[in-house]
């Protein structure tokens, strides 16, 4: 990651995500806490997760996105799009779930994670 204010190298970012994906490629579903993983594997996973997180934080900073606010907004949008009453315990696609009501929301630019000058 550079300090020049330029966007991080996209192929490098993709490579880091690829390295993270490789860890899980042949594992199938993994249980919470990774009880069957060796400590060395968990440490490696932590390093790869950290690499991806560092790139995301740097990219959001360069782009002027308040990542914390963007995440909170995304959680709110997901709660509307995937209501617990319909989705809890289901892995079905949203299009396969029956929805009785539709909810819409509006947000201002300061709520959507974009940093405005003067805020």
UniProtKB/TrEMBL annotation:
<dbReference type="GO" id="GO:0047840">
    <property type="term" value="F:dCTP diphosphatase activity"/>
</dbReference>
<comment type="subunit">
    <text>Homotetramer.</text>
</comment>
<dbReference type="Pfam" id="PF12643">
    <property type="entry name" value="MazG-like"/>
</dbReference>
<feature type="region of interest" description="Disordered">
    <location>
        <begin position="98"/>
        <end position="119"/>
    </location>
</feature>
<dbReference type="GO" id="GO:0005829">
    <property type="term" value="C:cytosol"/>
</dbReference>
<dbReference type="GO" id="GO:0006253">
    <property type="term" value="P:dCTP catabolic process"/>
</dbReference>
<dbReference type="InterPro" id="IPR025984">
    <property type="entry name" value="DCTPP"/>
</dbReference>
<comment type="function">
    <text>Hydrolyzes deoxynucleoside triphosphates (dNTPs) to the corresponding nucleoside monophosphates. Has a strong preference for dCTP and its analogs including 5-iodo-dCTP and 5-methyl-dCTP for which it may even have a higher efficiency. May protect DNA or RNA against the incorporation of these genotoxic nucleotide analogs through their catabolism.</text>
</comment>
<keyword id="KW-0460">Magnesium</keyword>
<dbReference type="GO" id="GO:0000287">
    <property type="term" value="F:magnesium ion binding"/>
</dbReference>
<keyword id="KW-0479">Metal-binding</keyword>
<protein>
    <recommendedName>
        <fullName>dCTP pyrophosphatase 1</fullName>
        <ecNumber>3.6.1.12</ecNumber>
    </recommendedName>
</protein>
<keyword id="KW-0378">Hydrolase</keyword>
<dbReference type="GO" id="GO:0042262">
    <property type="term" value="P:DNA protection"/>
</dbReference>
<feature type="compositionally biased region" description="Low complexity">
    <location>
        <begin position="98"/>
        <end position="110"/>
    </location>
</feature>
<keyword id="KW-0963">Cytoplasm</keyword>
């Amino acid at each position: 990651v550079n300090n020049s204010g330029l966007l991080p190298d996209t192929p490098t970012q993709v490579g880091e995500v690829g390295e993270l994906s490789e860890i899980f490629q042949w594992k199938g579903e993994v249980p919470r806490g990774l009880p069957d993983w060796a400590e060395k594997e968990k440490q490696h996973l932590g390093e790869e997760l950290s690499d991806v997180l560092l790139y995301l934080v740097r990219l959001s900073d360069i782009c002027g996105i308040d990542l914390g606010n963007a995440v909170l907004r995304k959680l709110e949008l997901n709660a509307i799009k995937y209501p617990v009453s319909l989705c809890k315990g289901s892995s079905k696609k949203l299009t396969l779930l029956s929805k009785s009501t539709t909810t819409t929301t509006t947000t201002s630019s300061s709520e959507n994670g974009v940093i405005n000058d003067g805020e």
